[in-house]
Design a protein that fits this description.
This protein has 135 residues and is mainly alpha-helical. It contains seven helices and two strands. It has helices at residues 5-18, 27-34, 38-50, 75-83, 90-93, 107-123, 126-132, and strands spanning 54-57, 63-66. It has a two-stranded antiparallel sheet. InterPro entries: Tscrpt_reg_Rrf2 (IPR000944), WH-like_DNA-bd_sf (IPR036388), WH_DNA-bd_sf (IPR036390).
Length: 135
């Protein structure tokens, strides 16, 4: 699995906001500090808002704020907010794409690997990433 640049930026955004719990950050600040083009960031913020991860407050005194505490937001949450699913192979997303899935010996392996990956991603929250990394 390779995450998209958009998802990488979303992870950076949530990580940045995790260091500012209870505070509102400006999009310009996030863009500058995390090296994310502002126009791209605005699209990412909207997706994260739709997923309930953060809230956007418009206006002069507005900004961006996490909706949940960093220990309640996992890497899985952010990846799914951006990618909609976690998959290693297209046949795991839709069996109908591959006519061999019913007799392919690798097909069940992709499901086991995906399930383990999801389990690990759900174990890594942003509080842990912020303080000690994923080790």
């Amino acid at each position: 699995m390779q995450i998209t640049r958009e998802t990488d930026y979303a992870i950076r955004t949530v990580l940045y906001l995790s260091g500012k719990v209870g505070l509102t950050a400006k999009a310009e600040e996030i863009s500058r500090e995390m090296e994310i083009p502002k126009s791209f960031l605005m699209k990412i913020l909207k997706k994260l808002e739709n997923a309930g991860i953060l809230s956007l407050k418009r206006g002069v005194s507005g900004g961006v704020e996490l909706q949940k505490k960093p220990n309640n937001i996992t890497l899985y949450d952010v990846i799914v907010a951006m990618e909609k699913t976690v998959a290693l192979n297209r046949c795991v997303v839709n069996k109908k794409i591959c006519g061999l899935s019913s007799r392919c010996p690798v097909h069940p392996v992709w499901f086991r690997v995906r399930d383990r990956l999801i389990q690990i991603l759900k174990e890594i929250n942003f509080s842990v990433l912020l303080t000690q990394g994923a080790a």
